[in-house]
Write a structure and sequence with these properties.
Layout: H1 2-40, H2 43-67, H3 79-99, H4 105-112, H5 114-122, H6 129-143, H7 155-182, H8 186-206, H9 216-240, H10 243-250, H11 253-265, H12 271-289
Family: Belongs to the EamA transporter family.
Main location: membrane
Keywords: Membrane, Transmembrane, Transmembrane helix
Length: about 300
């Protein structure tokens, strides 16, 4: 008679830990999308290029203070994957922010999400994923500027979001190689490469406005909400959640982007745009959530 009670007691901490991890991941995604909405508010002052430069610059500083990459001897660093990783990171952020100039946050996140979706499908060995791919393609089709089907979505914005997604795919693939070669130091080193690549672009575009005292505090918040906080909370969730659960929950990011766009930027979606975002979310859940492998990521 005591065994069921013992089981209930022993599983309660695990259930509680999983619930906390889910909350951490939702906070991370909400923080990321809130940061994007905050960043869009700075475009009028320093442009998407300037915002990207400050976000990546501050993020690189934060990450270097956390990881202290100077402790790693230079002759032990494998620079090739770090360089590609950093360029992909910088290009992804710049293209995404430039896309936000002309298209709403929710659809932009959904289009960019096709990058990791493509990586998952490429490495998949299941025939059923072809159906999920078709659903994602249909969602993407609804967002493309064919006549009025997309509700007037800007062609340049859509293409920039697609390019950001392609950079995200490269970031995922090369990031693993950089991590295998350099360990955790690949994160701050990649951010430094991205900053050295992007900051001059932002400086050329925005000039001295980049250092305005009315801009810097908000840009600091953008870096915190878009990089430091999401990374910290995602690491907590990643070490406690099964990888399939983690990936499935991450699929909700386009929906959170749409909610953030509506709440903070007053960006409503047309019916076709809403259906498109939903198609991409369901496709991502289908690919990650129905995978046979469900390894537990341990700390």
């Amino acid at each position: 008679m005591q065994q069921p009670q013992e089981v209930a007691v022993s599983t309660t901490p695990k259930a509680h830990g999983k619930a906390v991890s889910v909350i951490c991941l939702l906070v991370a995604m909400s923080s990321l999308q809130g940061g994007a909405a905050l960043a869009k508010g700075l475009f009028a002052g320093i442009g998407a290029e300037g915002v990207t430069a400050l976000r990546i610059g501050f993020s690189a500083i934060f990450l270097c203070l956390i990881f202290r990459p100077w402790r790693m001897p230079l002759n032990q660093i494998v620079w090739r994957p770090i360089f590609i990783y950093g360029v992909a990171l910088g290009s992804m952020n710049l293209a995404f922010y430039m896309a936000l100039r002309t298209i709403p946050l929710g659809p932009a996140v959904a289009i960019e999400f096709t990058g990791p979706l493509a990586v998952a499908i490429f490495y998949s060995r299941r025939l059923s994923d072809a159906g999920w791919l078709g659903l994602a393609v249909f969602g993407l089709y609804l967002l493309l500027p064919f006549g009025q089907i997309s509700g007037g979505m800007d062609t340049t914005g859509v293409l920039l979001a697609l390019f950001a997604g392609a950079c995200w795919a490269v970031y995922i693939v090369v990031g693993k190689k950089a991590g295998d070669a350099n360990g955790r130091m690949s994160v701050p080193l990649g951010a430094l490469v991205a900053a050295m690549f992007i900051f001059p672009i932002g400086l050329i575009h925005a000039g001295t406005a980049l250092f305005s005292l009315s801009i810097l505090p908000v840009a600091l918040l953008v870096a915190l909400f878009s990089s430091t906080l999401p990374y910290s909370f995602e690491m907590i969730a990643l070490t406690r959640l099964p990888s399939k659960t983690f990936s499935t929950l991450m699929s909700l990011e386009p929906a959170l982007g749409a909610v953030s766009g509506y709440l903070f930027l007053k960006e409503g979606l047309t019916l076709s745009q809403g259906i498109a975002v939903l198609c991409i979310i369901v496709s991502s859940i289908g690919i990650t959530g129905f995978s046979k492998n469900d390894p537990q990521v341990s700390a």
